[in-house]
Amino acid sequence: MTQEPISLDKALASFTEQWSPRIVTRVNDYDVRIAKVEGEHLWHAHEHTDEFFLVIDGELTIALREPEAGERTVTLPKGSVFTVPRGVEHKPTAPSGASILLFEPTGTLTVGDRHEEVPDHVDATTGHDLAVEDPEA
Amino acid sequence: MTQEPISLDKALASFTEQWSPRIVTRVNDYDVRIAKVEGEHLWHAHEHTDEFFLVIDGELTIALREPEAGERTVTLPKGSVFTVPRGVEHKPTAPSGASILLFEPTGTLTVGDRHEEVPDHVDATTGHDLAVEDPEA
């Protein structure tokens, strides 16, 4: 099957769930995922991988607990990128909502390898496949 | 040193060279690169890696020579993504110019592992570091 380009806007319009990433494409053994987020995620850490964030729309803040810098918060306006280093506890938050794009190894859990209790509004997953529209339809 | 979020607009404004990717951040052993492109790249293939494209601005077309589908061209408007599978010869073109984001293993050559003659306007490189502005300035 040949692949076609995917519009991120259309892909984002194909689902409504918050904090529940969709896999838009794969690059070797990495996923490119998109997610709609609003409110608070949870404190968690990925022990074996960095995690890349690109803000497609809205604004994301990420609270970080870093070995040297201690606890701080970074703000990502639309069109900005940030990589959370492996092992660093972090908590993404989007008070007014945001759409984000993530790069991370296939199989990476949204809640990391260690985390606080998972609230109901956060989907503990390795990402869902995007529901692809039929190009013949 | 702590990392700060990077604005893609500011990063793109920090250089003028065409077809000469800048590395904005690293994710494990992968680079996130951005490039300004206008006109034609060259036919090339990456034997050992897929290559991910996201169009930040403008429009990119990618000519492909695929084993089954043969030669075809995909068009990526602003805000769309596409992954060129490993081994597939491809030639990106942007007649009216575009800004793109790439995700690929650190060390990946812009001209691939096999390619036609490299024209003067294409930078054969594994990416350049972004000239980072001093946050204290």
Automatic annotation (TrEMBL), chains A, B:
CDD domains: cupin_YdbB-like. SUPFAM superfamilies: RmlC-like cupins. It holds the Pfam family Cupin_2. Residues 11-82 form the Cyclic nucleotide-binding domain. It comes from the Bacteria. InterPro entries: cNMP-bd_dom, Cupin_2, PKS_Associated_Protein, RmlC-like_jellyroll, RmlC_Cupin_sf. PANTHER family: 16.7 KDA PROTEIN IN WHIE LOCUS (PTHR36114:SF1). This is Cupin domain-containing protein. The lineage of its organism: Bacteria, Bacillati, Actinomycetota, Actinomycetes, Kitasatosporales.
